[in-house]
Amino acid sequence: MNGYTFDWSIVLDSAPDIGRGLLVTVELTVVVIVASMLLAVPVALLRMSEIDVVRWLAQGYIEIFRCTPVLVQLFWIFYAMPALTGVTLSGFASAFIALTANVTAFMAEAYRSGFQSVPVEQVEAAKMLRLTRFQQVRYIILPQALRQQLPVILSLNIGLFKETALVSTIAVTDLMYVSNTIAAQSYRSLEVLTAAAVVYFVIAFPASLITSTIERRMMNASGPSAPTGPSLLTRMLPGTRVKVPA
């Protein structure tokens, strides 16, 4: 490889710094997931409102954040918003706001799809029992929507974990920022960035497998006496085709 000599000792020596960067990445991912899952519920309900103006506003918010790059949103919150408001936010706060707004838009659409899949008869029964709208959402609509849209929600969370690498561009000391700093100081970009990629993969890949397993079990459960699918190890093998029950 053009005479390049690998030196993985820089990765071992920098392991504590990489670990601290990973901790920031995980912290940011967790707080954004919690906030977006909570905020997506009212946004989805507003998106389904019978009041045109409210529905249009909710749809406008969703489309703006779904149809613009996350990097642009990060830059706008970090650089542009202080110019408009005079309030300077830290990199972490800016990343939290931008990522939460972005993921909430996608999560709200997933919730809306789940809400609309709840049988109308159940909602009508809840009205006959004189349950309030809040009680209908809490006890009947939301649990079923979450259960049905769980694979989509998990996929969004996995994507969020990977997208947190973008926050390094606004000086958040996450895994990517620390890796770039170490690579620039050591001139060992190949080793350091490869190690960073492995860390992302080791966390995201098992989560992706779990998501696929949950989705497959839900598909099997939807049909009567569905046959048991191949094992997790078998599905990981290259060239394996997973049969979808008709």
Summarize the structure.
The chain is mainly alpha-helical. Helices cover 75% and strands 0% of the residues.
How would you sum up this structure, described in words?
With 246 residues, the protein is an all-alpha fold. It has a domain at 16-177: MetI-like fold (Orthogonal Bundle), CATH 1.10.3720.10. Helices cover 75% and strands 0% of the residues. Helix 4 crosses helix 5. The longest helix is centred in the first third of the chain and has 33 residues, at 15-47.
Sheet with the most strands? none
Unreliable stretches:
none
Approximate strand percentage: under 5%
The whole-number mean of residue pLDDT values reads: 85
CATH class of the domain at 16-177: Mainly Alpha
What's the β-strand tally? 0
Helix/strand structural class: mainly alpha
Order of helices and strands: HHHHHHHHHHH
Helix content class:
over 70%
CATH superfamily of the domain at 16-177: MetI-like
Distance between the termini: 49 Å
| The CATH topology of the domain at 16-177 | MetI-like fold
The DSSP helix count reads 11
Keywords:
MetI-like fold, globular, 11 helices, 75% helix, 246 residues, mainly alpha
Mind sketching the topology for me?
Blueprint: H1 9-13, H2 15-47, H3 52-66, H4 70-85, H5 91-117, H6 120-128, H7 133-148, H8 150-163, H9 175-186, H10 189-221, H11 232-236
Helix pairs in contact: 2-3, 2-5, 2-9, 3-5, 4-5, 5-7, 5-8, 6-7, 8-10, 9-10
